[in-house]
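Researcher: I've been going back and forth with a colleague about how Carnitine dehydratase might be arranged in three dimensions. Neither of us has a model we trust, so I'd like an independent prediction. The organism is Noviherbaspirillum denitrificans, in case that matters for your notes. Sequence below.
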Amino acid sequence: MLWKLGDLIIANAERLAEIERRDNGKLATEVTAQVRYMGDYFKYYAGLADKVQGAVIPTDKKGVLTYTKYEAKGVVAIITPWNSPLTLTSWKLAPALAAGCTAVIKPSEFTSASMLEFAELFAQAGFPPGVVNVITGFGQEVGEPLVTHPQVAHIGFTGGDAAGRKIYELAARHLKTVTLELGGKSPNIVFDDADLQQAVKGVVSGIFAASGQSCQAGSRLLVQESIHDRFVSMLVDFVSQAKMGDPSLPDTQIGPIATRPQFEKVLSYIQIAKDEGATCVLGGKPRSDLGAGMFVEPTIFTGVNNRMRIAQEEVFGPVLSVIPFKDEEDAIRIGNDVQFGLAAAVWTRSLHRAMLVTDKIKAGTIWVNNYRATSFTSPFGGFKDSGIGRESGVDAIKEYLETKCLWVSTDLDVPNPFVRR
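Model: Here is an independent structure prediction for Carnitine dehydratase. You can compare it with whatever you and your colleague have in mind.
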């Protein structure tokens, strides 16, 4: 059924992507590719479903056979945000189903349409009624009762750190397990020996793709002092040529902000950065000449120090803070000096430097000379306030399984019952 669902997703990718694009304004080219790739997620976990294996454990106890097995946790609550609702649901749902769990999905109240349409495919794939369920509504009215429901065993959540803390608190009251993929303030670190042309593209991909509405956005650009001015100039020249506009058009590179509250939040942080003394070298304003959409210019701030709010708090929009650094030690210090630890990138031609810095940066995913690559084969998740647990890869299915250890006596004679065996 998982494999058949993967085929159905691929066959319906353009229709599902169009519905999602209308909900959140994401580029048609990107969301269509994302939805097609979802099919591979479900096929990957279809292949993994019959490979969840326990182990026979040699112990120091004589006369017993000891082994482990894995069992599905039960009903899983999946709560997803508005920026990539179908993809981020798949990251949770595919391993949950492969583990043998059932699921209740609550999409964002801003982007429920694509999830409701996606749910229709499960019956076509042969899933029995009740295995996958979708409920819609606001967090307090629907999300909180779902998290605290006694029959929900595990919660998979992607969203902001404040909402993640609330879910974690509610889950802890009932001793439920959680997978939390939360926010980030990821450092994109460019050293003076990097291929600067490629690094510019990586910085753009890290913050201006999806209009910066990505948890893994490289919103802090750390540039070595010796190349700071040159690199910023190259970056401004590149970004200033990006085409903003209708996300349905294939040549559009930067689309709108998805929701009115997020649009206002992004503009408020631009003003905060200016008030803190940062220098706006590109953008910094809304665009009202691009049709019926909430557009914010790709914005770059220099003169940022890591204590500023613009460097510490997640904006979730096309706003980049540029911070200079001296050497490897300084880059590591600045990179880690934030509450988040979701992702990072290092741009250098030196293998030694790349290994040194990636060993020291506290982040769950670190790219070297690339940015924003993910795969169904590879774990994704954060350190510190960026979350708990991992999604994708073999690690993800373990989030939805309980480990049971069995001790089977092979002795004919019962040992002394008053002494622990």
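Researcher: What would you highlight for our discussion?
Model: I'd start with this: DSSP finds 14 helices and 19 strands in the chain. After that, consider the following. The chain has a mean pLDDT of 96.
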